Amino acid sequence: AQTVTQSQPEMSVQEAETVTLSCTYDTSESDYYLFWYKQPPSRQMILVIRQEAYKQQNATENRFSVNFQKAAKSFSLKISDSQLGDAAMYFCAYRTDEYGNKLVFGAGTILRVKS
Amino acid sequence: EPEVTQTPSHQVTQMGQEVILRCVPISNHLYFYWYRQILGQKVEFLVSFYNNEISEKSEIFDDQFSVERPDGSNFTLKIRSTKLEDSAMYFCASKLAENQETQYFGPGTRLLVL
């Protein structure tokens, strides 16, 4: 079974600075998708960025980018120019290739942004 | 932009009562999911649903749980006899097709069982 590990329960960053959130996963599949979801205090799950495993190029979405290391099974999220609105819980998630394509989530990292 | 919606946003119920959580997926989506998040814990998969049948369910999804798509728009999760440990945030998600990678989540229903 696939597992997702987020080893940082909590991170802090100064406004306008850069922060990196770590995620590792375990799988025997060769084709899969990885996601970062943001969960603000409202608790809604908001997609931040996604990465296809077959693509070597790291995904980017404005201030958000990933460092995808397939061999190391690592998928970190970099947030540049951090803003107060980035403060939230961030979940790393793996989408299985099995029928139904469920998401497997990590435990989450709380990101605090200091002004 | 189309969104997944869920009702109610909050529900309080007595232990042993039945609850129905409702979701309206994005209109042309074909794959539907329920996830649960107990306060302070990770988001856990409950069930996936496609073509009017369950495609996968987790160990959490026991006989007390059921899902239904009663009409062309709603997707419901029923808990027949709620337990204290069912208190959680319940998220509905949907995606367009099997080869579409992204699941879109609703805002969640916060269920409190007393």
Explained architecture:
The complex is a heterodimer of chains A (115) and B (114). With 115 residues, chain A is mostly beta strands. Chain A has no helices and twelve strands. In chain A, the strands form three sheets. In chain A, strands 2, 5, 6, 10, 11 and 12 form a six-stranded mixed sheet that branches. In chain A, strands 3-9-8-7 form a four-stranded antiparallel sheet, with no helix packed on it. In chain A, strands 1-4 form a two-stranded antiparallel ribbon. In chain A, a hairpin with a 2-residue loop joins β7 (60-61) and β8 (64-69). The termini of chain A are far apart. The mean pLDDT of chain A is 93. Chain B is mainly beta. In chain B, 0% of the residues lie in helices and 50% in strands. Chain B contains no helices and eleven strands. In chain B, strands 2, 4, 5, 6, 9, 10 and 11 form a seven-stranded mixed sheet that branches. In chain B, strands 1-3-8-7 form a four-stranded antiparallel sheet, with no helix packed on it. In chain B, a hairpin with a 6-residue loop joins β7 (65-68) and β8 (75-79). Chain B is globular. Classes of the chains: A mainly beta (115), B mainly beta (114).
Using brief descriptors, characterize the structure shown:
heterodimer; A: 115 residues; mainly beta; six-stranded mixed sheet; four-stranded antiparallel sheet; 0% helix; 51% strand; B: 114 residues; seven-stranded mixed sheet
Task: Write the H/E string of chain A, N to C.
Answer: EEEEEEEEEEEE
Q: Level of helix content of chain B?
A: under 10%
The first-to-last residue Cα distance of chain A is 41 Å
**What shape does the CA trace of chain A take?**
globular
Structural class, from secondary structure content of chain B?
mainly beta
Low-pLDDT runs of chain B: none
Low-pLDDT residue intervals, each spanning 5 or more residues of chain A: none
